[in-house]
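Slide 14.
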Amino acid sequence: MLRDKNSADSQSEFMRYLANHQEAEAQSLPALTELSRELGVSVASLREQLEVARALGLVDVRPRTGIRRLAYTFRPAVQQSLGYAISLDRKSFDLYADLRRHLETAYWHEAVSKLTEEDRAELHSLVARAWEKLRGPQPEIPHSEHRKLHLLIYRRLENPFVAGLLEAYWDAYEAVGLHFYTDFNYLEEVWQYHQKMVDSICSGDYAAGYAALTEHTDLIFLLMASSKK
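Slide 15: predicted structure.
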């Protein structure tokens, strides 16, 4: 006999199933009717919990390929919660930006020590592309380079929670429109700090890079203050 559990219990059953079936990343999960019989949960409850899992980025659901488990990422859960918080109160972004600042400084030394030669070359390339955009005949905002540079620095931590929190920050940064900020004097200053950070990483002077990072991240609060005027 099927049991209609409450949402928390139903989710727990479906999440446990996902966690215990790693092969589901390579092949489709059984149909919901089959899962319903196996787990003892109604199809309606499973369908609800499937939608929760999809919103959290845990599964991919497509008509022809069915339901497949995705590699774990923390980003969707943070992204949705943060987006809702910012919709309630724009100040939530300021609070999250402060969290991100502390997160980056806390992990700086560990993160940069793990970067490879290829990573350092990519950092140099991002800085070079940013300067080309800023100093070209028709200046452009190097936002994609900005986002990629910061996320690349923390790439080798192999910590999905740190990665998710940092990725969600940049999603929110774009959601509130800060990537459209066009004070090119400000942007020049930001990229001078980025240049120092990358040069310090490549020379192995991680303390100097840390100093540039902390000074640079303080600028975001000046930007947020000016954007509210």
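Speaker note: Residues 35 and 64 are 18 Å apart (CA to CA).
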